Amino acid sequence: MKKLLPALLAVIMLASCSSVMMTGRRQLNLVSDAELNQLSFAAYKQLKDSVPMSTDRTNSAMVKRVGTNISAAVERYMRQNGLEEQIANFQWEYNLFKVNQVNAFAMPGGKIAVFDGILPKTMTETGMAVVVGHEIAHVVARHSAERYSQQVAAQYGGAILGAVIGGSSTTVQNGVGLLYGIGGQMMLLKYSRKQEYEADELGLILMAMAGYNPNEAITFWERMTKDNTKSVSDFMSTHPSDEKRIARLKQVAPVAMQYYKTGITPKVTK
Question: Which residue of 17, 133, 255, 257 sits 20 to 30 Å from the alpha carbon of 77, by its own alpha carbon?
Answer without folding.
Answer: 17
